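Troubleshooting entry. The earlier prediction with adenosine-5'-triphosphate gave an output that would not parse, so I re-checked the input for stray whitespace and re-submitted. Clean input:
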Amino acid sequence: MKNTEISMQNVTALAKRRGFIYPGSEIYGGLANTYDYGPVGTELLRNIRNLWWENFIHRRDDIVGLEASLISHQEIWKASGHTSGFADAQVDCKNCKLRMRADHLIEDALNGKNVEGLAIEELDEIIEQNKIKCPNCGKSSWTKVRKFNLLFPVNLGIVEGDQSLAYLRGETAQGMFVNFKNVIESTRVKLPFGIAQLGKSFRNEITPGNSVFRTLEFEQGEIEYFFDPNESNWEDLFENWKNSIWSFITEKIGINNKNLRWREHTDKERSFYSKKTEDLEYNFPFGFKELWGLAYRTDYDLSQHEKGSGKELRINNPQTNEKKLPHVIEPAVGINRIFLMILCDAYREEEGRTYLKLNPKIAPYKAAVFPLLANKEELVSKAKEIYKDLRESIMVTFDDRGNIGKRYLYQDEIGTPFCITVDFDSLSDDSVTVRYRDTMEQDRIKISELKDFIEKKTR
Ligand code: ATP
């Protein structure tokens, strides 16, 4: 089912118009599947990152942070299975040369048919049997399905020959596994505990144009939660993680829970080492899609790196004096997908007005301050004074361009919850008009109470 009330086109048009997202390398004709974040988009991204970090690292005593290198040793990706298995199946249209992921081609043509985990021969057969047409030229003339590795290779200048090959990381997770020994030796952690990381990952993806949903570089928030399966029940841990993720998205980010669902991976699509994988999916305008993956990965990753590196990655159980490889549960989310979800969920077109009903906690600006008229010095200086005072502790913006109506229009579209206007009465009664984004109602508030009022409503 698609969230048909919102058009993706309108959301992306607003995102460009108001400085959330710009197409990458635009003045040179663009570079497919890359995007830049504009001034308000950058603030929103930072707010998402900060909330995630605060919620999963600062507010917990069992998770520590990490920031690993983006460029990493080729052996890491061999041991993790990425150089051989991290591949998408792709097909090319022989007529117009359009390149597509085979699963996306089939899903789009056959009403969302789920083909995850099928062999390439099976995908070939489905495309052929259903005579699936090219969405670009309408012909049904496809090459055979081929696997295409998603890792971006990089060549290092300081080493010769084969050893010069390294990879831009395809996920942040491997950083946690290769630093596992460092973390247990340099900190006071004890099982169960998590290592978390927030940062860029790179995948050479072919993708249909759904804005920042799938891009070549993107930001992940991943946690590897290590535990001893004899001491902790994995099913309970898994359930706890589902609850933490759900309450983060619905309560902290403020997403409508009607647009969210958990979907369990079938045996075919689940990785062979995973005992259970579930995706939290959001109902984007282009259908329910993965936002956040949650997987019980057993001890697969650490055991692969023990084999690959020859280093022991075990942890000592002080009770039994036994050294064991911990098991791991991995919650992994894309920060840019949270960003896109937030825009889609907040987008409103009502009675000729467009606005973003953003949770005030994550809105780029908490309030905007205006002088009623830009050419009245006493109003401007009073408004500037209020703005500067609020700016000390709250993210606020100032605007004296155009008329009040235009200023409201702009602030509505970037989701600013409160607009504060300094008018002639303000000069005598030390009060301002506060206008609410969602209801457009207005209140008169004392300047001395303003900071408290906004802080209470936006924290
Ligand atoms: P998908 O099936 O959509 O390709 P995935 O299962 O490969 O995703 P994971 O490897 O589990 O994704 O990565 C964890 C999270 O990172 C995903 O849930 C998603 O939010 C995000 N993510 C993955 N690939 C991309 C991408 N190319 N662009 C933006 N976000 C991404």
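This one parsed fine. The longest strand covers residues 217-227.
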